[in-house]
Amino acid sequence: MALGKAYLSSAEIRDLSQRSDLWGAWLVVHCWGLILGAAAVFAAFPNLLTWLLAVMVIGSRQLGLAILMHEAAHNALFRNRRLNDWAGEWLCGRPIIADLPEYRHYHLTHHRHTQTDRDPDLQLSKPFPTTRASLRRKLIRDITGQTGVKQRAQQVMFAFKMAGETEAVSSQDLAQAFSGPVIGRAILANVVLFALFWAITGAWWGWLALWLAPLLTWFQMVLRIRNIAEHGAVEFSDDPFRNTRTTLANPMERLFLAPYRVNYHLEHHLVMHIPAHNLPRLHRLLVEKGLGPRMTTARGYADVLRQASSLS
Length: 312
Hints:
mainly alpha, 15 helices, membrane, transmembrane helix, transmembrane
């Protein structure tokens, strides 16, 4: 049962839960449009500045693909179930080496046991708050590619049964326990992307510079920041207003850190099948009902990082 039923009427939930194939198509097109647009700008004006901008935009939209796969995991991306699952797998998950069925199982477990000992995401939130030095080291490992290389190596090693236990990752993130066929489908998707980026840039290294580099660096960093924002440095309890955080993101943060309303995470946990584009409406409705003071919120991602690194 949706946690939000204690605070919202059935009519309100039904209205907010309306899915749309047109909305789903627009979100997927928008995400890939920004990715290919950033690559085209670099191809037209190849220099260090346009490459760095492309890495930031593409890395944020790789997170966007993960978020849209998350929408599909809740059957909220498209109204049509077959289209929802196909787009969630092949247009969103496979390109970033993620698997929708495995992710859906993992993520729904997180929803059932949020911030409890049975939450598979608990190890991501439990270390926070930490010190500034510790957080800085984590972010440096992310942006320099160390985290990304380690995780991709673990994925491949597990897929070919060359490794045992691997570190669990967040819901909405890349599942480590991939089988060989799953990796094979991810490789197929990236072969297509390799050809596409070669065509856009006219260079064989286009995929390396404009897809792999963002995936190993900017994507990893914003992935961690998003994870911290959702459940880091919040209450270890079953209160849905205290064990999850909503971050009030500005337009620049939505562009580079928090695409597709992922910042409204508390609202998502209250009614997890509401499409992301309706989460701001749900937030306003909860505030109008006088629930604002109960909600755990942050004024932005800088505020989140301050809270997460508040230990001396």
